[in-house]
Amino acid sequence: MGVYKQKTGRNLDGEETYGPVLPLPLSVVRLAASSEKTSVRSDSSASRGQADQMVAESKILTGQLLGVDDLIELVGMTLRVVGIHPRFTVSGALDHYEVSLEHVAE
Fold it and tell me: For residues 35 and 26, is the Cβ–Cβ distance under 8 A?
């Protein structure tokens, strides 16, 4: 079981705002977090500067309809919804949602 916060809009500074924390029944399909090297500068040819960036390739299944940019907290990680795919039974009824997630830098 995880928790989620729905995106409610943006404040005057352009930062995303979220509603209250709500329970989220879910099943984890993949929850893989890793650290990747990324260039610090757009023209990294001069300094070859690098930084570590957390990357999470995660998928969950849930019966709750979520929105893109909603936040999910699961196993001490904060993840952002980047994709939602409804999945149907063979008779055509909605069964659940497959949700793709990315790691949120904290």
Answer: no
